[in-house]
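Quick one, tokens below. Sequence please?
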């Protein structure tokens, strides 16, 4: 993100764009600081926690679900229109994520170690 920001700043300056710092309202600076610090730390902490407790393939699905949530919030909060293609795309994304999570759950069930009682029984009677 830092490299991308530097590239965008360079292109912006080369095209003649300038920021008039004095014209930016103080509330905007506070909002920028809040988003940069509080929201980023919260999101990173949630992501790190999810990585430590969930399979990576499940955590990676957030990248697919976020745009669907953004479109839904735009529709609900800002009264943006939804096209049939957007709805179809959202349905495909949600169905795909559900399939990934379901397959991951099925794989975990197959990989579960046997119950301790079963291990003890097999140790006493190897033919069982």
């Amino acid at each position: 993100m830092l490299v991308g920001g530097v590239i965008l700043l360079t292109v912006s300056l080369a095209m003649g764009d300038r920021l008039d710092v004095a014209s930016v309202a103080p509330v905007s600076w506070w909002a920028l600081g809040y988003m940069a610090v509080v929201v980023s730390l919260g999101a990173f902490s949630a992501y790190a926690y999810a990585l430590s407790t969930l399979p990576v393939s499940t955590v990676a699905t957030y990248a697919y679900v976020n745009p669907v949530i953004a479109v839904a919030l735009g529709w609900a909060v800002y009264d943006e229109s939804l096209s049939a293609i957007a709805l179809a795309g959202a349905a495909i994304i949600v169905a795909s994520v559900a399939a990934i999570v379901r397959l991951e759950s099925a794989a975990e069930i197959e990989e579960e170690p046997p119950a301790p009682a079963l291990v003890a029984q097999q140790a006493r009677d190897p033919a069982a």
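The helical segments are 2-14, 26-53, 56-59, 62-78, 84-111, 116-124. The chain has six helices and no strands.
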